Amino acid sequence: MNELFTNRTGINIPVAEIIVRNDAPEAFRSYLLVIMKQFCGLKRIREIVCAATKEAPDSGNWSENDFMNSEIQSVVLNCSWYRIYDIIELFYNKIEISQRAQFEQEINDYFIEKGIGWKMICGKIETRGDEAFEADLVEAETVLSERNLSTSKTEMKEAIADLSRRPNPEITGALQHSLAALECVCREITSDRGMTLGKLISKHPDIIPSPLNIVINKIWGFSSEQGRHLQEGRVPEYEEAELVVHLSAAVCSYLCKKHIKLDDTWFPEK
């Protein structure tokens, strides 16, 4: 595809506030049809749409005409919101490898410009937060990789995966995995590998400057209660889980940048 004016001239498209998450507005569904038609014909699109939505194609319609287009449109506009994201992922996997990056870019550009709280990474739909949230996640992943803290990195990825589950995010799982990532980092830095995060902060109060260490302890208490010891009528909200994941990622990055590892021992960086 030819590069369009906004990309060619380097115009920065404003990032819209996230207003859509557990939904797929009609305007987005219609736009998706427009985009898919740029990559393949109606027969292929119908095959993918029907497979993703568990709908049978019209056995009496096998020509690429207005009737087939209307059939596809009807399925896309009337299916459950989460099936739209299934269509996107399946479509990505079914088109030519050379087309995938462009398709993914088109989808992500729409998400950002229209305030949809999802993003597509290597063909998978994941939850998307505001700019600060996204920046902290990227930084945490980079820093954890550089420090070879693979367990913490995996736990953080699992937290994001739980937030991304559809139609219902796994809130308690996101809380548990994000705090497990932070716990693993603290265990490595303190060499106390058998203690919980709360006990680690209490035993090593200087690992995080006061009074921030108290804040982390409170987050641990909240996540332990809400993520592990649920009480009837006290189910945590998505926004609360997103906040804990965000804070955990930021603190993981902070700890890794403030400490260096020499001969399997971590020291505060001077």
General description of the model:
This protein has 270 residues and is mostly helical. The chain has 2 domains: 123 residues, no CATH class; 138 residues, Up-down Bundle (Four Helix Bundle (Hemerythrin (Met), subunit A)), CATH 1.20.120. It is built from 12 helices and 4 strands. The strands form 2 sheets. A two-stranded antiparallel sheet has the order 1-2. A two-stranded antiparallel sheet has the order 3-4. Helix 3 packs across helix 5. The protein is elongated and about 70 Å long.
What's the alpha carbon Rg, rounded to whole Å? 22 Å
CATH architecture identity of the largest domain: Up-down Bundle
- Helix count? 12
Proportion in helices: 55-70%
Strand and helix layout:
Elements: H1 5-8, H2 26-37, H3 42-53, H4 66-78, H5 81-94, H6 97-114, E1 118-121, E2 124-127, H7 131-146, H8 150-164, H9 171-190, H10 197-203, H11 212-227, H12 238-258, E3 259-262, E4 265-268
Antiparallel strand pairs: 1-2, 3-4
Helix pairs in contact: 2-6, 3-4, 3-5, 7-8, 7-12, 8-9, 8-12, 9-11, 9-12, 10-11
Give descriptors for this structure.
mainly alpha, 270 residues, two-stranded antiparallel sheet, Four Helix Bundle (Hemerythrin (Met), subunit A), 2 domains, 62% helix, 4 strands, elongated
